[in-house]
Amino acid sequence: MSLSILLVAPLIGLLLSLFAAGGGLVAVPLLNAGLGMPLKQAIAASLMIVASTSLIALIQKKGWRLINWRLHRFFAVGAILGGFSGAAIGLEISEKVQAMLFTMLVLLIAWWINSNSIKKLAREAVNTSCNCMLALFAGFASGVITGLLGVGGGFIIVPILMLLGVANHQAAVAHSLLLIISSSLAASVRYYDYFSITWKPVLMLLALAGLGVWIGGWISSRVKTAKLQQGFSFALCMLAVWMLYKTHIFDMQS
């Protein structure tokens, strides 16, 4: 395992700790382009890494204290069903299509987290009563992305939660971490056949991701979120370019 991969791996936990998002966006390229895993195996391993790291971050933050359990119940049911469905779709399409969709998602999120729309949403969020049917649908949509591409979907879940009435950002992060755990585990059930992999490097990435959770907790009160988002959006663009280069997804002859 190269030094560059060892240095980037803690970013998985760092992002989940700070934003409840982004872990899978780093884990999948590291496993696929960095360690040479076939994409579907990389997605399967990413689901387990993201679920485990999200659990570590939730424990670190004592996030269960901030959960609106009524809202979470409906969102979680949708996320589990969506995760299972997204995995079923992912198993039926080619790895090239999955890689293309993943790269498009990475670039979309890199743009969106620095857009005015997400900043406006954070300012306007207010506590409201639970719109349970909308929570069910939103959970399903985020779960499909999780199962299809091996990412937790936190950058989608957190803004949706704020629209659904979780006005406090820290509470939205706690909800997102718990939802990522459930949807990732549900999706991993469908990827069971792809778990015949060498687990030593995966467990090493998981350990480094756990270190990243600790680092994220340490810097969360010392660095402004806006600065972190700007740096992360740049890192996402670099990861997307790296994945395009390593996987040759636009090489139509492969």
Architecture overview:
- The protein has 254 residues and is mainly alpha-helical.
- It has one domain (13-247).
- Helix content is 77%, strand content 0%.
- The protein contains twelve helices and no strands.
- It has helices spanning 3-8, 10-19, 23-34, 39-61, 69-92, 95-112, 116-124, 132-149, 154-163, 169-190, 199-219, 225-247.
- Helix 5 packs parallel to helix 10 (169-190), helix 6 (95-112) packs antiparallel against helix 12 and helix 8 packs across helix 10 (169-190).
- The longest helix is centred in the first third of the chain and has 24 residues, at 69-92.
- It is globular and about 45 Å long.
- The mean pLDDT is 79.
Structural class: mainly alpha
Radius of gyration (Å): 17 Å
In terms of DSSP E residues, the strand content is under 5%
Q: Give me the number of helical elements.
A: 12
Q: Which parts are unreliable, with pLDDT below 50 for 5 consecutive residues or more?
A: none
Overall mean pLDDT stands at 79
Helix content: over 70%
Task: Tell me the number of strands.
Answer: 0
Spatial shape: globular
How far apart the termini lie comes to 26 Å
| Whole-number tally of structural domains | 1
Give, in order, the helices and strands.
HHHHHHHHHHHH
Summarize the biggest pleated sheet: none
